[in-house]
Amino acid sequence: MTASQESPLGDVDVEAVREGLRSWYREHHREFPWRETTDSYEILVSEVMSQQTQLGRVREAWEAFLDRWPTVSDLAAADRAEVVAFWTEHSLGYNNRAKYLHEAAHQVRDEYDGEFPRNPDELEQLMGVGPYTANAVASFAFNNGDAVVDTNVKRVLYRAFDVADDDTEFERAATELLPEGESRLWNNAIMELGGVVCGKTPQCDKEGCPWREWCRAYQTGDFTAPDVPTQPDFEGSRRQFRGRIVRALGEHDELELDELGPRIRVDYTPDGEYGREWLRGLLSDLADDGLVELEEDDGTVVTLLGQ
Ligand code: SF4
């Protein structure tokens, strides 16, 4: 295998990584009404609205818009000035987006017999629909999208799997991770992970990131990313030590406390400042997060739990 054919994800267990994210997303994702629908028109409206507006505010506007123009034919039949006025009243950003949305409704009615096309390339033919929006509609409405690669996804792939800061590599990594036939769930999940958990200041433990076990940034404590050039300001060192514990336990099935300690700090001494008590503090956080298990006896054995 030549270097260019090597996986940008390295030798990570892709299936375990997928399952980690799927389960996390099923339990933790934020609920938005457009995530409950597979109606392509409703999804397109939500995507166009959220390009410039915070999701919390989009909810109300989206519901009002769909009350007023419930279907793509209703929107196509509407007066353009009214659609633009709605956009302004709800502070949804550039009016051109309202005009394009109205025009796209005409295209669906006149060129596609009122039925949205189902794949990203055709969806991109609609007015105002760029590659990102086309892929979002294909994924969320038809479960027929490609792997989404936006800034949030790049950040999480870079931190977690050390993917090179290069668009082709990000694309390859994202595509390799996408489970076949699951673009609806997967693209929602990876965007949520990158946007909510692995933001500029990541919330690895607080949000229970499902990728901590594999994450290079979590292990090394280096949380910079293409769009985060300097180390984000947060409780770095504790997090860094927790990362080292996860990594050390990944290399050994289980370790006794005094075997683990020196692997975490060179100055570990069982009864010293950085000794058993300090280590137990870190381990109990990790145990609360379900990452490790402590078997309390004289030696105290610590085991890494699978995700
Ligand atoms: S462990 Fe932290 S840095 Fe790594 S992917 Fe999760 S949130 Fe991002």
Topology:
Layout lengths: L13 H15 L11 H11 L4 H14 L3 H6 L2 H10 L5 H17 L8 H4 L7 H12 L8 H11 L5 H11 L5 H15 L18 H5 L15 H16 L2 E3 H8 L11 H13 L3 E4 L5 E4 L3
Antiparallel strand pairs: 1-3, 2-3
Helix pairs in contact: 1-11, 2-3, 2-8, 5-6, 8-11, 9-11
Bound molecules: iron/sulfur cluster.
Structure characterization notes:
The chain is mostly helical. It has helices spanning 14-28, 40-50, 55-68, 72-77, 80-89, 95-111, 120-123, 131-142, 151-161, 167-177, 183-197, 216-220, 236-251, 257-264, 276-288, and strands at residues 254-256, 292-295, 301-304. The protein folds into three domains: 1-32 and 146-234, Endonuclease Iii, domain 2 (Orthogonal Bundle), CATH 1.10.1670; 39-142, Hypothetical protein, domain 2 (Endonuclease III, domain 1, Orthogonal Bundle); 247-304, Orthogonal Bundle (Arc Repressor Mutant, subunit A). It is 55% helix and 4% strand. Strands 1-3-2 form a three-stranded antiparallel β-sheet. Iron/sulfur cluster (SF4) binds at residues 156, 159-160, 197-198, 202, 204, 209, 211-212, 215, 217-218, 223. The site of iron/sulfur cluster has 14 residues, from helix 9 and helix 12.
